[in-house]
Design brief:
This protein is an all-alpha fold. It has helices at 3-22, 26-47, 57-68, 77-100, 106-109, 114-125, 131-149, 160-169, 174-189, 194-210, 224-233, 239-246, 251-276. Helix content is 70%, strand content 0%.
Length: 285
């Protein structure tokens, strides 16, 4: 990357960061987050020379969200870019850790092209594949290609079902991105009350885990300490206990108020998605 082009990209990234800090409208702030993520992807691709940048979308989005909220970096441009570099390095490591867990059937790993994958599946089934089955083959093929691109990673051989599930779990698609945007919007509205945001985020995180609604793309917008503890020790705090961290009330009252807060969060998220992306999230008749 030429020095002049690198400096222009630095200026663009820092400018988006400042615009976000100065913007008051929540919907416009969401636009700046997306622009910030796209600029970081370019930084990864042309400055850091990362491979598989598009596949790292979930991890880079997480970095964008964490960095863009560090308003104490406004007057420290050098510190800003040091923080970005460290965060993106961690994001790459996280991507590779997830990639190492992808399971690929032994017979598919030997194939050279997506056409060979589809042909093998058609021979096994004795018919042409449906569109859904072809899309499934594409997911598997991407998994194979990703693992081949990382020579230092090992892989485990398992059944095709597990392979596909592992890959899809790490993909952030348009629908997932809108859900993340809606969660961000909810907490952004309450940012003037940091203690309230911390309480609501912790409650919502525990709720997602308990209802099996948590998936890795949400890591960047939920309570990361709770998620890390749950993944390390299978330790999930009770909702009433979370509420009592922030409010000294009896257990019954804490349980009731926690339920009301979660009901509010879910309604607000659904309302945002239906109002802004009705084609993806149609309103129930």
């Amino acid at each position: 990357m030429e020095e002049n082009s690198e400096e222009k990209l630095r200026d663009k990234i820092f400018s988006i960061f400042l615009n976000y800090q100065n913007e008051q409208a929540s919907d416009r702030r969401q636009v700046h987050i997306v622009l910030f993520r796209d600029s970081l992807k370019k930084w990864c691709k042309y400055k850091l020379c990362y491979k598989n940048v598009d596949e790292m979308d979930s991890e880079i989005f997480g970095v964008a969200w964490r960095v863009i909220n560090k308003n104490y970096l406004i007057n420290n441009r050098d510190g800003f870019f040091r923080y970005i570099s460290k965060s993106l390095k961690n994001a790459k490591n996280e991507y590779y850790r997830k990639l190492a867990k992808i399971r690929i059937p032994r017979e598919l790993y030997k194939l050279k092209t997506i056409e060979e994958v589809i042909l093998m599946k058609e021979k096994q089934k004795g018919r042409s594949l449906t569109i859904k089955e072809r899309n499934k083959c594409i997911l598997i093929w991407k998994s194979i290609e990703n693992v081949r691109n990382v020579k230092s990673l090992s892989y485990d051989v398992s059944d095709e079902r597990h392979s596909n599930e592992q890959y899809e779990e790490n993909v952030i698609d348009e629908k997932t991105e809108k859900i993340i945007e809606a969660i961000n919007f909810y907490f952004e509205k309450k940012k003037r009350k940091p203690r309230l945001v911390a309480c609501h985020k912790a409650l919502y995180t525990v709720s997602c885990i308990k209802k099996n609604n948590y998936f890795k793309a949400l890591y960047c917008v939920l309570d990361q300490e709770i998620i890390d503890r749950w993944q390390r020790n299978d330790d999930i705090p009770e909702l009433y206990a979370i509420y009592q961290r922030y409010h000294q009330v009896p257990k019954n009252s804490a349980s009731s108020r926690s339920a009301n807060i979660l009901d509010e969060i879910n309604k607000e998220i659904i309302k945002y998605l239906v109002n802004n992306y009705s084609k993806i999230f149609p309103k129930n008749p």
